Amino acid sequence: MSVETLIGADPDVLIVPDWKTYDGSDANTLKEALYANPKLSSMKAIKNKQIYAVDYNYMFGYGYNTIDGMEQLAKEMYPDLFK
Question: Which CATH number describes the domain made up of 3-82?
Fold first, then answer.
């Protein structure tokens, strides 16, 4: 997805995969880069600090782990509901 398309969509929330890359980057590195990118600063998800990382294998593994991934994401997005 291009930066322009992402800006045009202006999502309320961004969900990024949580995995390490060949250079050691992880979801936190990606989140920091997205928050620091001035081109994205007008987006709702950036302004409201609504970027969430979820384990890629849980969310896209197409098995029982997908339910665990959804629960992990819900706990991160709505921590008050899981106290």
Answer: 3.40.50.1980
- Is 61 or 35 the better-scoring residue by pLDDT? 35
pLDDT (tens digit, 9 = 90+) per residue, 2-44? 889 999 999 999 998 877 666 667 888 889 999 999 999 999 9
Is residue 53 helix, strand or coil? strand
End-to-end CA distance of the chain: 36
Using alpha carbons only, give the angle 41, 20, 8 rounded to the nearest 5 degrees.
25
